[in-house]
What does this fold into?
Amino acid sequence: MTEDLATIVQRHGHDPKWLVEILHDVTEAQGYVSKGAITELASMLGVPRGQVEGVVGFYTFFSDEPRGAYRVLFSDGTTDRMAGSLALLERMRASFGLRDDEISRDGRISVGTTSCTGLCDQGPAMLVNGHAIGSLDGARLGDVMALVRAGAALATWPRELFAVRSNVHRRDLLLSAKLTPGEAVAAAARRGRDDTLAEISRSGLRGRGGAGFPTGAKWAACAKAPREPRYVVCNADEGEPGTFKDRGLLAHHLDLVLEGMTVAAYAVGASHGFLYVRAEYRFLFAPIEEALAARRAAGMLGANACGIHGFSFDIELRRGAGAYVCGEESALLESLEGKRGIPRNRPPFPVTHGYDQCPTIVNNVETFMAAALVARDGASVLRDLGTRTSAGTKILSVAGDVERPGVYEYPFGVTVRKVLEDAGASRVQAVQVSGPAGTLLSARELDRTISFEDVPSAGAFTVFDDRRDILAILENHARFFAHESCGFCTPCRVGTTLVARTMGRITSGHAARRDLVDVERVARVMAKTSHCGLGAMAGNPVLQGIEKFRPAFDARLRPVEALPTFDLDASLEKARDVTGRDDDDAHLAEESTP
It folds into this structure.
């Protein structure tokens, strides 16, 4: 293994900034990153052992403990559960006699869960050794289990199992765009750097990641920053439960994305770009590398890129490793530098102190696509669509209780009701826009609009009809944030856990009025005191749920002021399991409450 480690580290230039990539390669080679490998990697990279160990422990896709030869992870997103993932998970565990993440005695398989895998339009989904399998049902799961029992190499599994559908149901500006590679960059070069920046500003383009920061202002600030080199980063780490649009954009519109990154690099004077893609989209890595190689061969990347004398620019693909917080731009930069994805203190902002403390712009996939079209066609291509303060279009990932889940593109200003009609929704109880951190809408708000001035969205649009338990949905959101908190700051680390536990008690009917007061208070403290946006918004589902679905909470609360938060009977569950007893005498009788 020492030689293999040496080869891997050498391939990445003995550079600690490649640590996340190195750990991916080590995991691929030996299935996990052993404690011995951690020590050797630290020595080879010239960094403290604790630094390597910290990175291994931070990302879900790495482990310092052995895993099964087949590591199965069921997607635990809300829509996966709605589609029946829990029953399939339990069936597989029972079939192999396993508990959560336990390895079978022969080392063949381990079965666990992971957060949303970006297949919400074709769930339930799972990952097998990082390879996505969607549209699970009893028959497909049976096929998977048979292949595991037969010990079939993953490369020999039927390709149909790994097929990922596009499910595009409505196209507008971006999804209908036709562009000859190099066309937008050539138009930018004819216009010049300053005028390209001005054109981006005139277009009204705002970041499509949800915050809506003006793209022209971001690029101009980076261009003016004195330090060099400058960097362009495309954030394709969409990890918000319910979103999956980037999956299709990278699969079918990659040239437009790369063109937008190259336009940005030309405008700000950047020489290097990173395309950071979430690890769950493993099936995209090879096509992306092929597309980058094709652009290099065609002279659109590299020295004098696109035939522009003195303009050198290239793009690297970098893989995420299963950390939702890396969708935050400064956490993503930390990950790119081979570190744990802990969000940075700001200011300074990435436009002046980004990757390697150099000026960096970070935009998402959709923003770069729109920028490419502005460079080619001018500001009016966006200004002629949408609203006064929300120019252009928005691509939505529609999932949940709809007849036609998939990708829809609309001009900004479209009503929520129109999206629901197109997707075939009925008996709507709630719509979660922009994921759990976004906006929870009730059925009384369907005439609100998708726009920065009303309901902003990073893309997720999840529908729940009146059959769903809204409290169970909110509890799932709370557990998601507790799982994804990076643990850096106390308000988020402790607060998300408290909220998740309290929501669990409320949902199960083991909470009182005081619990509702406490969970609301904790959510507000997180919003005011957390280090980054994850913690600040982690309480949104609970706060919005209490505001808009209060009767559902009241119906589940016990008619008392307070209840003990420690469940003694539940704490004895392990003892009952060990002794094989589950009779009445093995339980503590619940005391009646006043």
The radius of gyration is 25 Å. The CA atoms of residues 181 and 255 lie 7 Å apart. The longest strand covers residues 393-400. The chain is about 45% helix and 10% strand.
